[in-house]
Specification:
alpha/beta, flat
Length: 444
């Protein structure tokens, strides 16, 4: 989306042009998405044009400097873009090859980090200043709510008593519909009372080699099963979404209506996602007092402090994490806890694909594809005659399983993956054509 605009900026800088007017013209484009795409743009150019990588990196540094100094727009977003440019350039302008350039970029990064820390510090101060006033308002509204609830209950009792007396005096009049309507008012209408906060790095067991032994849809459904959860008001997933390894679950995030919260993974900001999650949770307490249930999808013991703080404000906390990858303190302070299948077996199975490829609940998804082939035409007939080309089977897997990627399961070829799936079934892989070059799936 921003690739062409990034190219315009870099071209103008390479020609020693003033880009101030260009920055103002595209002010609305400067957001976290721009920063993410700047990283992708830089990586692509470094790989596709290695002979020009140094020149491109230096131009990106100059663009980052000008955006960092740009006084218009959102300062926080400008800083994210500048930092993205600096860090991308450091992949080429290393200390060993370009010590002077490297030192200059490091100084720019230090300044940018300090500016961002100042913004965060100011935000925390403002939140603390507003907390006391907001709490007074919450207390007043809560007291008023209880008073009106008591008055409403008394009026209902009086009206029911009057109806009962009228029913005895005039038995021919059917007042049951009125009584049912009044009783129905005792059950409030559904309201959006729940928010779900996902710590994606914890859920994927790290960002360097993320694992995916989970289903976001199943996690959401498990949380919804609690009667105290009415409707989901918001879902937020915290991660460095510029990490290409997370591409596998981006589609699921969109389909489930989960809002991706961009957190860039800097080496000296290891807990950046955790910090942002806590800040947002505290802000939601005051900005949306109707929220009653906070679901935290993470096994990090640090969130136990957040759970205690939520309890202070009368909120219910649901925890959710892997059974054997959860700090013992977190389940103890949560009101409810959803335990996910332990991913240890998943890792063992990936390391030994000859036995199986995934836990049973995930392996079943691939068996459903085999059942589809077995029960639907023209695949059903082909399976019992010459067989179905493996390319067709692979296409069906991608269509029916949104996050399908056999290479993530340590299989270099789709045929090897399919062999593992059809073990102990009536399916087999046969070969035909010259030198048995064509592989097909067939029923025994």
């Amino acid at each position: 989306m921003h690739q062409d605009l990034i190219f315009q900026f870099l071209k103008a800088i390479s020609q020693n042009q003033d880009i101030s007017s260009l920055l103002v013209k595209h002010l609305d484009k400067f957001d976290n998405t721009f920063a993410s795409e700047l990283r992708e743009f830089a990586n692509q150019k470094f790989v596709s044009q290695p002979s020009k990588a140094v020149a491109i990196a230096k131009i990106i540094v100059e663009l980052s400097k000008r955006i960092q100094q740009f006084i218009s727009g959102n300062t926080a977003s400008n800083l994210e873009i500048a930092i993205a440019g600096y860090e991308s350039a450091l992949k080429i302008l290393t200390y060993e090859a370009f010590p002077r350039d490297w030192a200059g970029i490091q100084q720019h990064l230090i300044n940018a980090y300090q500016q961002r820390q100042d913004i965060l510090s100011q935000t925390i101060i403002e939140l603390k200043e507003n907390t006391f006033q907001n709490q007074i308002q919450i207390n007043d509204l809560t007291e008023k709510f209880h008073q009106e609830k008591q008055q409403s209950s008394e009026l209902k009792v009086q009206l029911l008593q009057a109806i009962e007396s009228q029913t005895k005096a005039v038995p021919a009049i059917d007042l049951q519909p009125i009584v049912s309507a009044i009783q129905a008012t005792k059950s409030p209408l559904p309201n959006f009372n729940t928010v779900i906060l996902y710590d994606i790095e914890n859920l994927t067991l790290g960002s360097n080699n993320p694992q995916f032994p989970f289903s976001l849809k199943e996690i959401t459904e498990n949380i919804k099963r609690y009667n105290l959860v009415d409707k989901i008001a918001g879902q937020y997933a915290y991660a460095d979404w510029s990490n290409s390894r997370l591409h596998r679950i981006r589609k699921n995030i969109q389909e489930l209506g989960i809002e991706p919260m961009q957190i860039f993974g800097f080496s000296n900001h290891k807990n950046a996602a955790d910090i942002q999650l806590v800040i947002d949770a505290v802000e939601l307490i005051h900005s949306k007092p109707s929220l009653e249930v906070f679901a935290i999808v993470s096994g990090d013991g640090g969130f136990s402090c957040l759970a205690k703080k939520l309890h202070e404000y009368g909120k219910i906390v649901i925890g959710c994490a892997y059974n054997n990858h959860t700090n013992k303190l977190l389940p103890a302070v949560c009101d409810y806890f959803v335990r996910l299948p332990d991913p240890v077996n998943y890792r063992n199975e990936v390391n030994h694909p000859s036995s199986t490829v995934e836990p049973p609940q995930l392996r079943n998804r691939y068996q459903e594809v085999l059942n589809y082939l077995r029960n639907n035409q023209p695949y059903r007939s082909d399976l019992r005659q010459d067989g179905v080309d493996l390319s067709v089977v692979r296409k069906l897997c991608k269509e029916q399983i949104s996050d399908f990627d056999y290479q993530e399961l340590n299989f270099k070829k789709f045929k090897s993956f399919l062999k593992s799936i059809i073990q102990d079934t009536e399916f087999e892989i046969v070969h035909s054509g010259s030198n048995n070059s064509i592989a097909k799936l067939k029923l025994n």
